[in-house]
Amino acid sequence: MKTLVLGAGVVGLTTAYYLAREGHEVEVAERHAGPGMETSFGNAGGLCPSFAAPWAAPGMPWKVLKMALKADAPVRFSLWPDPVRLRWVRQWLQQCNAPRFRINKLRMQRVAHYSLACLRELIADTPLAFDFHAGGVLQLFQTGAECRHGDLSASALAELGIEHRVLDGTQARQVEPALSQATAPLAGALHLPADASGDSHLFCQALNAWLQTQGVRFHYGTTIERLRHEGGRVTGADSSSGPLLADATVVALGNQAPALLAPLGVKLPVYPLKGFSITAPILDSARAPTLSIMDEHNKVMISRLGSRLRAAGMAELVGHDLTLNPARKATLIRAVRSLFPDGIDYSQATFWAGLRPMTPDGPAILGRCGWEGLYLNSGHGSNGWTQACGTSRVVADLVCGRQPAIDLDGLTLERFARR
């Protein structure tokens, strides 16, 4: 079967990998000149299935409002009256309660743990190097309220039988000795030893090169203009490089997916959530973390990528604006320095912004959407790197007419039609 994958970020590339592994003729179209140039480029690096959770959480609306009043708030939103954003926010608010949080977290956990297992298999099957480190994750809490939220997450992990430990501040420092010089308060932590980290952009580059040796064709610098269809079936896409015909088309375009699908009557509730990252050289290995760190107070994820430290976080509902605000860089550096004051060359930190394609409830949107030959692999939010291999294998199974290895309940577009 001839298959067309739209998008060459980490989700699109892993989709191409699983389709090619099944013997399909695979082509990939991407508007950028190379792989992994958008959200996959500078994300936090965490491969964190145990930590995977929706942004829609109990108390989050109030926390967002309080944080928005601060000059260096980790969460901001535009006051411009955008109907698309307002509709997304309304759907998001409906998910910000304990019952929905539990349901959505369990759905994301189901995908994320399957995905890490798929990634480990991919690593064994391919010669890819991308600063992979299977050291676990430490979720840090600075207040009692954050610790209570951690207890809620721990109960969901216990229900799934996922290894974890609830720690106090002293125990957190013992697990990650580099925290011994931290100036920020450490009220507690959640230790997730099964998680890992890696550089998703390096992964994209390596997988792209390997896929070319397997016969996958790439169309870089190619903008998708519209999906081709006739008689209720999608037959490929029209692009800036001409028509791209296929028996099956997978949309893995992140934030560009809703606009492409809208003319077909497919309403994809995905909105860009802007985030920032810094990448700084490590000067003293002993004073840099070995684990990936989630600073829950500042909503900053910190990962060690070889000889570099990557920190990413913050959330801005400002549409597709990618402006780099120097104040946000300073905020990130301040948050990371409060945990790791020494051993990192913050003066050489590079700065980046990306747009996370967020669904209002958290899980990605996978599979069919009412048109024959059309499949979705969309809306991964801040969990794209963590969930890419799992969701891509699921979609490849569906393209092949196979039942996926995990339950698709709550992971398809149908869940939004029911509301």
CATH architecture tag of the domain at 58-87 and 131-196 and 271-358:
2-Layer Sandwich
Largest sheet geometry: 9 strands, mixed
The low-confidence runs, each spanning 5 or more residues with pLDDT under 50, are: none
Shape: globular
Q: What is the CATH C-level name of the domain at 58-87 and 131-196 and 271-358?
A: Alpha Beta
**Measured distance between first and last alpha carbons:** 35 Å
Number of DSSP strand runs? 20
Mind telling me the CATH superfamily name of the domain at 58-87 and 131-196 and 271-358?
A: D-Amino Acid Oxidase, subunit A, domain 2
> Roughly what fraction of the amino acids lie in strands?
25-35%
- In CATH, the topology of the domain at 58-87 and 131-196 and 271-358 is named D-Amino Acid Oxidase, Chain A, domain 2
Class from secondary-structure proportions = alpha/beta
Radius of gyration: 20 Å
Mean pLDDT: 93
Percent of residues in helices comes to 25-40%
Helical element count?
11
Quaternary class: single chain
Keywords: Oxidoreductase
Domain FAD dependent oxidoreductase: 3-398
Organism: Bordetella trematum
Enzyme class: oxidoreductase
